[in-house]
Amino acid sequence: MEEMHIGVMTWVLRDPIESLGLALAVGVRTMQLGCPPDGYDPERKEEFKELLRKSGIKVTTVFCGYAGENYSTLETTKETVGLRNPKFREERVRKTFEVSDFAKEIGVNAIAAHIGFVPEDREDPLYGEIVETMRKIADYCKGNGQFFALETGQETARTLLRFIKDVGRDNVRVNFDPANMLFYGSGDPIEALEVLKDYVIGVHCKDARREGGRLVEVPFGEGEVGAERFLRKLVEIGYKGPLTIERELEDPEEQRREMARIKVSLEKLRDKVLSTR
Ligand code: MG
Q1: What sign results for the dihedral spanned by CA atoms 20, 273, 239, 166?
Q2: Strand residue runs (E) in the chain
Q3: Which protein residues have a CB closer than 5 Å to ligand 1 (ion)?
Q4: Mean pLDDT, the chain, whole residue set
Q5: Tens digits of per-residue pLDDT, 58-98?
Q6: For helices 227-236 and 189-196, what crossing angle results, to 10°?
Q7: Rounded to the nearest whole angstrom, what is the distance from the C-alpha of residue 246 to the centroid of ligand 1?
Q8: What is the helix, strand, coil percentage profile of the chain, to 5?
Q9: Which long-range contacts (CB under 8 A, 24 or more apart) does 156-161 make?
Q10: How many angstroms does the Cα of residue 248 sit away from the middle of ligand 1?
Q11: Is the pTM of this model over 0.90?
Q12: Which band of pLDDT confidence, cut at 50, 70 and 90, is reported for residue 134?
């Protein structure tokens, strides 16, 4: 496959067949598939597998969505997202195993998730609990021949790097989302990429810009990430994986249109960066 091929990230709350339709409509060859929190209806799943085979589209990662996650404020995010809250943990570990099995069924060698804010303080008892939980998940993925990728942003790159080392499993990697670094105030995305460079197996081409005093998500290339310097940095660290467009819009039509537009400009930019490295 060509270097830095372009893909789309589909919404976790969406039906997989609709997700596939999005990738086809945007005209990309790869996608990261968001797995709905309630899993798949068995019949629908078989239909999806068949359609995926025929489509020629490669799923590069399956993303876990967990029931009950709420990203509306920093507090609700801390409370409800990922593996942080002990109340949800066991059920979500089970769910992650299911996603791993499903990914294996469709021939995908990586799954990913937001695991929730990893505490900066290593002495925080929660830190050790999340390390243990991550080991269980990594070992399960290993049994399925897979990587587990941590979506970035909810902690600084240095905290994430230390966490990966403390987990100590060779299949734990990073899905690098530069806009999330801005959203959560976790530092400059390019510096963060340098810190995490040995672990990056996927990236989200997502952007953010300050508007009226608050950060809003905008199409990749129109925000503060600095699309060209981001791509140049990826080349510098030797990244050759997919460039996965992420655009979090509720309206599927609008999302499709925007992603198609981003794809055109991203292709141009990628070709420019690759030809002038
Ligand atoms: Mg992302």
Answers
A1: negative
A2: 6-9, 30-35, 58-64, 110-113, 147-151, 172-176, 200-205, 207-211, 214-218, 243-245
A3: 177, 204, 246
A4: 94
A5: 999 999 989 898 988 889 999 999 999 999 999 999 999 99
A6: 10
A7: 6
A8: 50, 20, 35
A9: 156/120, 156/186, 156/187, 156/192, 157/181, 157/186, 157/187, 157/191, 157/192, 157/193, 157/195, 157/196, 158/195, 159/118, 159/120, 160/118, 160/196, 161/195, 161/196, 161/199
A10: 9
A11: yes
A12: very high
**155 Cα–ligand 1 center, Å:** 14
Task: Give the Cβ contact number of residue 170 at 10 Å.
Answer: 9
CA 242 – CA 28 distance, rounded (Å): 11
Backbone angles phi, psi at 87, to 5 degrees: -55, -35
Q: Specify the pLDDT at position 40.
A: 80
> 98 and 139 in contact (C-beta within 8 Å)?
no
DSSP three-state, residue 135: helix
The CATH number assigned to the domain with range 6-275 reads: 3.20.20.150
Residue 213: what pLDDT?
Answer: 87
pLDDT greater than 70 at residue 1: no
pLDDT tens across 208-257, in order?
Answer: 999 998 999 999 999 999 999 999 999 999 999 999 999 989 898 999 99
**Residue 151 CA, ligand 1 centroid: distance in Å:** 6
pLDDT at 240: 96
Q: Are 28 and 7 in contact (CB under 8 A)?
A: yes
